[in-house]
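Exercise (ungraded).
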Amino acid sequence: MKNDNYIVRPLICILAVALLGGVLISINTGAVNPDTTMLLGGMCLTLAVVYALLRFFPLGDHYIFMITSMLGVIGVIMLLRLQTGHGQKQVIWFSVGAGLFLVTSLVYRFVKHWNKLNKLYVAGGIMLFMATALFGYSSGGAKSWLRLGGFSFQPSELVKILFILTLAGVFTNEYKKPMENDHKIKTFYNTKLGRNCAATFVAYLFLLFLLLQRDWGTAVLFFAVYIAFMAVYGEDKRFLILNGVAAVFVSIIGIKFMSHIQVRIATWLRPFDDIAGKGYQITQSLFAIGEGGFTGRGIGAGSPYYIPEVHSDFIFSAICEEMGILGGLAVIMLYFVLVYRAFKISLSTNNDFNKAVAMGIGVMLGVQTFIIIGGVIKFIPLTGITLPFISYGGSSMVTTFLALGILQGISARRREIEDEI
Amino acid sequence: MKYNGKIITVMVVICAMFLSLAVYLTYFTIVDSGELIENKFNKRIREREESILRGTIFDSKGEILAYSAMDGNRQKRYYPFKERYAHVIGYNSVTYDKSGLENTFNDILVKADPFEDISGFFSMNKEMPKGADLYLTIDNSLTAIAEKRMRGKNGAVVALRPKTGEVLCMYSNPSFDPNEEALSKNFALLTKSENAPFLGRAAQGLYPPGSTFKIITAAAAIEEGVAENIIDEGSVVIDGYPVENYNGKKLGEIDITKGFAASSNVMFASYGVKIGEKRLRAVAERFGIGERLDFDIRTSKSLFNYENRMGQTDLAAVGIGQGKLLVTPLNMALVASAIANDGVIMKPYIVDKALYSGGRQAYVSKPDVWKTAVSEAVAAMIENMMVECVNTGTGTGAQINGVTVAGKTGTAENEESDKTHAWFVCYAPAEDPEIAICVMQEYAGVTGSNCAPIARELIKYYLGK
């Protein structure tokens, strides 16, 4: 079993982190919490089961889940330390997500023709946005939440995946030969320019919905994914230039006329001017990171609860306070390796559609991580989006697992092909 | 495969984004964070302070002036002498923040011995660590006398040792009770009071020095060689500005010693004109007027407040300590100590040392020269005049049997025409000075003041007479 080292060793590391985290929380908060112990145990059990499945069945890439579980464990430890109830739900979400991850990977792998469903993706996206506009409610400035049964979720999280699938389909589907009786639009769609215009239309439609919801963070994320696709598949410099002009134009309009944006920029540049008001959250975040220093104050020994919304958008600051920026840098590196993994799968697969999807997922994960971490450390203006796998929240956890499930499916398919050869 | 190259480009861009995050985070931690976390909106500062029992503050004889004790599960600060040290030690309040030494020496008061900390980590006995204790140069009994004698008068008393700069007494009246309950009960009233009880007059109050400034004018006149005899007719007109002696008293032909002892305005106004702006300003600066003083608590800078060229009337006014001159009582005590210490002003200090609870030293003050005001010879000549002033002149109220006291009175005109500020600066014994004192009373008038007798009582107590 010598060859198993590469999979067993990381697993042991992750279990050790979970164990140490639990012990430190108990020591520093001065009490052994049976809930904490049980929850971390449950988390580890989930991990072990998924690992066993990955190990003994040919389910594709091993690394994706390893990195994800390390991030998940760090997130759960932090949430358990902040509020046991949140940690508890997060463990459940993680387990649900992990299950969905495996199911998605199998479904994606064995159901063919994902590239033929473009109209469905766009229709689904529009429906989700419409539903949010009609039945949604606001939380944290953006009207982007939908209540379904007992659960709240952000439809835009799901649209992210639909968006990537759409763009991948538009750019990689074969061109059909024009027929006599084809509609003009269909003929146009089967040209390079037509494809570019179609992608642009979908992207701007979704952006419009997001801006109406005032969900700027997600809008920037969608725009970044769209630009990445255009840069790779567009093969038309005019579109990049026009998009650049549009971005500058929208930014200027936003900065000049929208008080919402002005406030964000002002609190980014001069957070201490209104420290008791609008700059409160970001300065509290900076205090936490600053107090943590390199090695942190110890898990359970810091005071991250001074930061409003610490369990969701600002969880990275809590990690920096208690685990130090060395802990923070480790988290950044884990995301980096995860993103790298997505690109690696993209580069090594032969299927054009899957290649595009994998790249899209890589860009989405990378940019999302950049936007939120950059925001809480005051590197860029703050826009509230979640930190995948670490922030408290079900819809983010589940949809990111869904995206990774697709990635996992692609990686497994790639192996099949390699095996055949 | 044809898109792989471009996908790699996108990947490189994403890599650069991650790298920039890591670099910025490291930069923030190394460069920005140290200063940033000192912000008072960082609640962890209070939290950290609460976890360490704040150090005790002792006077020079070991009497406790401030201490902390647990009140339930939170610590509380007690000031047993209430109003006496409100402007020196100040207060440490959750609501009203910190002032005085509690503010400037906060870092030391809440710092446990780092070595003890390690041993405490391994011991089972989880006692709350204690911050370092401050040992002041203040003499509590001396301050008690100042407090008692200043009752009912707004003003300040400063006493220090000329040879070292140790502050023996620093008291400002009116004062307030810095204990938490009293403070929160009276805070609104105190901030509104016309008497400005929060103003520490000794180090922060600014007043025209009046005739006490003649010490500086005399020093400049001697240095410039203009200290000649004059015939004092009781009044003189300089450039259309009439200068009168107190009650218009005619002194006749007098030398500088006589003129100083009798506080002749005619003489010193004309000296001011003869010395000229440049030299007078330079000498005043050597006595610390217009200079920033780095002190243990917040001080105001005394002011020589002329921006444009001074005319003759300005020089005449400054020569007798009027015009746009503003000084702190602490500064005037330093002027007296300059003459006492052969022309050298020692840097004043209140905190002698700080010790961790285990006895290790956390902080220590060493006597240090602040300024050299005048030469030894000039200091000796002015000492003569000051002794004469107490023996035969305006300062007789400070005479003590068997002790030579050197002093100078002052009555400073201010915005209220009939109520002058009263000053007395002095030191004793003149032969080997142990204490220099400045007593100032606001709007006391000539008759209502008892500055010299207060100084006398302080000297008598301090020298054990």
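Further reading is listed at the end of the chapter. For now, observe: The mean pLDDT of chain A is 86. The radius of gyration of chain A is 22 Å.
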